[in-house]
Amino acid sequence: MIGLQSTRSTEHLFMDKIITNDLIYDLIFLYASPASILRLSRTCQPCFAAVQSYIPRAYNINRHLSRFFQDPLAFRSLQARTGTVVSGSNALQFFDRSFYPESDLDIYIPPRYKVEVGEWLLSVGYKFVPNTQQKPTFEEAVNDQDTDDDGYEEGSGPYSMKGVSRVFTFTKPSHVDPSQELKVQAIVASLTPMEIILLFHSTCVINAITWDKAYCFYPKGTLEDRRSLVCRANGPNQEEAQQKYAARGWDVSPKLLTTGPDGSDPAFPIGPRFVGDRQTWTIPLNVDGVTPPAPNTPLSRPLSTDAISCSGWRLHSYRPAIDQTEMIFELLKGPSRLAFSYVFLPREAVKVTQMLEKQYTPTKHGGSSDHQDGIR
DSSP code of 53? Predict the structure, then answer.
């Protein structure tokens, strides 16, 4: 009887004093994994209400970006009109609710928008810092055709890899503490940011933040199991990057575990994947105050979501005996009127290419069958 009374007393304490006090449960949730928090929300109405209150505060993208931009809404509006994606360690910190004081902000830019994004960074107080191969000003460097696909020192960082066209570095003193320097790496894609992201050294950094959503593509491995699967990637310094994340608490390994009922690894499903699928943890972001994408032409409708949302790929175990995996996808550049390029599953890429060819086939009246819809 005493034990039963003690249990009931503890339950009352939790329900009456803890789960109704955000000052207390915020601290508790800080040490819980996202899946544990979501499981708790399914236990009772008060816990559900607490989690519903916690999620928008814990995953506040404007607060997250405010370290680098005094007006994060202006940056997110820039993302919306240019397709710029935040990824790398900054996106991981957002999902992991962690903070690396020494980390910079990596933004991945479709090639046609590199000038607009760079000029915007200059307009908000950042200074262009050329490397030894770049011209001294951003205007000169961005227009220097000789540095295409070689806008950085070979082997100088994690950006010497397939899919990267240019890297521009911008710095400025922190508006909170001027003694600290903020750094933004503007990484220009050869075709699409998703190609670069899918070719990262390991899965813990394969995440993306767009203007309206945040995507963690391998949430069980990254946030629950603290595992980062090493995939075949291009470029030097992969081992250095892997060691950095191992030091930050991830088990960085090429090994797939066979813990699933079918002998698979539940954290890293082999097979087709799509942005926003059931294996992706997708966080819809508050877009109040963000200017959404404009229509591509006066006759077309604006994009209702981010440009990477239709991307697809496959995690392929090509040498399972020695634990070697890679990301399989095909690039779709499309007609010149497309604002963005895309990555697709190989079979899907063929279908989309055929559809686009049909869409842009001249009609007998001399026009094209898209009726100038401005497909993006």
Answer: H
DSSP of 279-333: TSEEEEPP-TT--PPPPSSTTSPPPSS-TTTT-EEEEEEEEGGGTEEEEE-EEE-
pLDDT grade for 372, boundaries at 50, 70 and 90? very low
Distance CA 181, CA 174 (A): 6
- How many other C-beta atoms are found inside a 10 Å radius of the C-beta of residue 259? 11
Q: Which residues pair with 36 in a beta bridge?
A: none
pTM, full prediction: 0.87
- Say how far apart CA 107 and CA 236 lie, in whole Å: 20
Alpha-carbon radius of gyration of the chain: 23
Under a CB-based contact definition with an 8 Å cutoff, are residues 82 and 110 in contact? yes
105 contacts 90 by C-beta, under 8 angstroms: yes
Tokens representing 64 are 């997250």
Task: Look at residue 124 and give its three-state secondary structure.
Answer: coil
Task: Give the confidence band of 2 by pLDDT, cuts at 50, 70, 90.
Answer: very low
Amino acid at 173: P
C-alpha to C-alpha distance for 310 and 313, rounded to whole angstroms: 10
pLDDT tens column, 161-208: 789 999 999 999 999 999 999 999 999 999 999 999 999 999 999 999
Average pLDDT of the chain? 85
Q: Is-contact 128 141, C-beta < 8 A?
A: yes
| Calpha distance 336→185 (Å, rounded) | 27
Hey, where are the domains in the chain? Answer: 2-58, 61-198, 203-295+303-345
CA atoms within 13 A on the CB side of 99: 8
Q: Which amino acid is at 240?
A: E
| Residue 233, C-beta contacts closer than 8 angstroms, at least 6 positions apart | 161, 199, 200, 201
3-state secondary structure of 49: helix
